Amino acid sequence: MLKTYSISEVAKELNLTAYTLRYYDKEGLMPFVERTASRTRLFKESDIEALKVIECLKSTGMPIKEIKHFIDWCSDGDSTLQQRYEMFIERKATVESQLEELNKTMELIKHKCWYYKTALEAGTEDIHKNEKIEIPTTN
Amino acid sequence: MLKTYSISEVAKELNLTAYTLRYYDKEGLMPFVERTASRTRLFKESDIEALKVIECLKSTGMPIKEIKHFIDWCSDGDSTLQQRYEMFIERKATVESQLEELNKTMELIKHKCWYYKTALEAGTEDIHKNEKIEIPTTN
DNA sequence: ACTTGACCTAGAGTTAACTATAAGGATTAA
DNA sequence: TTAATCCTTATAGTTAACTCTAGGTCAAGT
């Protein structure tokens, strides 16, 4: 007798649209979601948790087709524990390098903030014309 | 008499393809690149630096059409310093929240690494069946 | 002079991930 | 019972960012 949720309730909760959830279902990402006799999807709390994991993988840049492999492994049970473990280890490395990249991006952005702040104060970009090493105290 | 680079040299340097660079040019991202009499592009060192800034903006998720606005402002000179400053301030906020998101993602990934490591050791996922608060020492 | 290889443009094709439409079925409220 | 508001499917359309093809030009080497 556990509570269930409609597709639009789940969409709202996860900041997605019902279209998107149906699309994920069509792509095989939600084989676990049960239905009523008349085909209406009934989402359990655990289904929402699984969708959060899917969103997590998506946010690492993993394409939907690869996420499906993971979902298939989940359906296959304990015999795929090794693959799933390795997948998350690999994801961890991916996210680590993404964090590194994003931090580099941040440094350049901060530099540009400083560049335009000082140019704005001077009224012209020309003050940066022949400088090579003007290190601002970052931040 | 400064050194110039061909499109394929620049592509190699920036880990892009010549196709992509021509596409960027077509979209108006490279109005500064000079040409020979026979229309061949001649990239200067400063053009490559500008392209690195474009790549930086791209890596924050900014769409090419918005990047074009920035390039247009650059062409317009000092009268657009304010807009450009504000754009980078806004980008900084964007990257900050992206970093936050990515760190949350990392936490979930690490949790899953632990989840599967322990499941693998036990030979079955069942060991996680009725646990709610098994906090592993993260990392 | 001729071939090779890198360059050029215009325009067509591709891909992923949605996003929307059309036509219909079920549940609730008056 | 009828209207509203969900839900369903199949299928078509959209968008961004490439990615490629065709047909041509140009400069260097043999």
Search tags:
homodimer; 139 residues; mainly alpha; two-stranded antiparallel ribbon; 2 strands; elongated; DNA-binding
Q: How many H/I helical runs of chain A?
A: 5
Give the proportion of residues in helices of chain A: 55-70%
Largest sheet of chain A: 2 strands, antiparallel
Give the H and E element order of chain A. HHEEHHH
Using a beta-carbon cutoff below 8 angstroms, give the protein chain pair with the largest interface and the number of residues from each chain. Answer: A-B, 36 and 36 residues
The stretches of 5 or more residues of chain A where confidence is low (pLDDT under 50) are none
What is the number of E strands of chain A?
2
3D structure, described in words:
Chain A is mainly alpha-helical. Chain A is built from five helices and two strands. Chain A has a two-stranded antiparallel ribbon. Chain A is elongated and about 70 Å long.
Structure at a glance:
The structure is a homodimer of 139-residue chains. By secondary structure, chain A is mostly helical.
Write the layout of secondary structure elements.
The structure is a homodimer.
Chain A: H1 7-14, H2 18-26, E1 34-35, E2 41-42, H3 45-59, H4 64-76, H5 81-122
Chain B binds a DNA duplex (30 and 30 nucleotides) through helix 2.
